[in-house]
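Researcher: Structure for this, please.
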Amino acid sequence: MKSQHYSEQTEGTWLALEIGNSRLHWALFHGKSLNCTWDTEYLPESVIQQLGDWGAEEQRGRGAEEQRSRGSSIYPFPFPLSPFPFPLLLASVVPQQTAIWQSYPNVRVITLEDIPLNNIYPTLGIDRALALWGAGMSWGFPMLVIDAGTALTFTAADGDKNLVGGAILPGMGLQLASLGQKTGQLPQLEVEEIQLPPRFALNTPQAMQSGVIYTLLAGIKDFIDEWWRLFPDGKVAMKGGDRNLLLSYLQELYPAIASRLIVEPNLIFWGMQKISMSR
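Model: Predicted structure, token format:
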């Protein structure tokens, strides 16, 4: 469902932007098709204003290369985009960042009111809601989405698109970091692409990894088992930066569960695409 290559096609082209807690996550769509994705740092407000100025220059006949040479060096797109600016669909968990993007031409900010899930509560994260909507509309409801990011979240909806609820806990990296930061004798560890450590470890780093990894995997298994007890035909989709590492561990410990998982990093963008089609 994902293409890594940029196409020169521009008819029906639009941009999706997810403003995360630390970075901007971008996607380029051609109609219903996801063309490519990339990440950037936050952009200064002056650069966002220049994006609109470049669009005006484009309309006056100047090319994208000339626009960039006369504008800021902080160009957020990994390829020339022309004609410009494309429509932008935006979802954000950072209100201050949302505000500065209001100056971008032809922007639409997605809120919880735009997502046709039932029983949504007001403080549900827009990222969780969009990922659930994207997964459910792509693979079917009932759907449970596991986001293996900085925080590990579970978000679920039943076959009638009613929000069942979910859970939030520290992700793998955050758990390891908290042990190193909040204790006097434990080292600072980061998430590594490592094989499963010994469950009963004989050194401190492996003991930390064992404690975090095995309890995290047991928790994931418990939530999935309960999900399938409630909804035997329910789907489970996983996203997030630690998804592949956790999947490899699940394949080793719980292969029957791992074989049924849908692993898709772009669930939020698919949710935005479904929203864009409903306009």
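Researcher: Any notable elements?
Model: Strands lie at 13-19, 24-30, 33-40, 88-92, 107-109, 143-148, 151-157, 163-170, 235-239, 261-263. The first strand starts at residue 13 and ends at 19.
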